[in-house]
Amino acid sequence: SYELTQPPSVSVSPGQTARITCSGDALPGKYAYWYQQKSGQAPVLVIYEDTKRPSGIPERFSGSSSGTMATLTISGAQVADEADYYCYSTDSTFHHRGFFGGGTKVTVL
Amino acid sequence: QVHLVQSGAEVKKPGASVKVSCKIPGHSISDFSMHWVRHLVGKGLEWMGGFEPEDGDAILPQKFQGRVTLTEDTDTDTAYMELRNLRSEDTALYFCAAGRERSKNYLDPPHYWGPGTQVTVSS
Asked: Are A20 and A65 in contact (CB under 8 A)?
C-alpha cells in the first residue's frame, strides 16, 4: 500500500521558518496538497498542486516539490499557525486513490 | 462561495450501519468530485473514498471495499457515505470534501470541506 511519510512534529520560534516534509515514491508524478487542521475543526487547504496558494491563504505559506519529497514552508511563523499539517497525494493507479501523510504537529513558541 | 453542509451527529451500536449526507447549497452536487475523509480520535486523517461525477464511479481504498458505499442523489443534490458493520474503532469525525467546481481533473482532490459529522459506535 502506498504511503506518505511526514515528521511527527516540528517546533519553531515566532518569526522563524518552519519546514514540513512529505516523502512518497509516487510523488515525482503526482501533485502534493497540504491541509492545516486545528483541533476539532475541518481541515483547510493551504497549498495545492505542489506550489499554488488558494485565495485567502497568507503569503507566508509556500510549497515546493522535488523528486520523492514535497515541502511546506511557513516563513515567519506565527502563533496562529500552530496546527496539524497533512500532505495528500494520489497513488500511481488510473483511479487516483488518495492518501494522507501521518500529519505533522507544528508548535510555535 | 462553496460551503458544505453535513447531517448531524450519530450514535450507533456495533454491527449497525450509518449513512452521512452532504450538500453544497446553491450548487449542483454533480459539478464536484466528492471525497469522504475521517479523523479518528488521537490519529490522523484517513481518506475513505471519492465519487467522480463524470462517470459515476466510486473509488475506494482496499480497506473500505465491501463496507463503504458512496452515492449521489442528483434530484436533491446530496452526496451520501454509508459505512456498514460498525465497530468501536469507527468512532470518528467524518468529513465530506469537494474538489473544484467543474474541474477537468479526474477526482479533483479536496479544496472545500464540510464541518464534520461525529459518529460514535458504542454498545
From this structure: no
Cβ–Cβ contact A97 with B under 8 A: yes
Tell me which chain A residues have a C-beta less than 8 angstroms from the C-beta of B37. 43, 100
pLDDT tens per residue, range A11-54: 999 999 999 999 998 898 899 999 999 988 999 999 999 999 99
CB within 8 A of B55, min separation 6: which ones?
A: none
The 10s digit of each residue's pLDDT in B10-43 is 999 999 999 999 999 999 999 999 999 999 988 9
Measure CB to CB from residue A100 to each of B46, B57, B112 and give the nearest one: B46
Q: For residue A58, give the nearest of A43, A46, A48, A70 by alpha carbon.
A: A46
A104 CB neighbour count, 10 Å cutoff: 23
Most A CBs within 10 Å, among B3, B22, B39, to test the A interface: B39
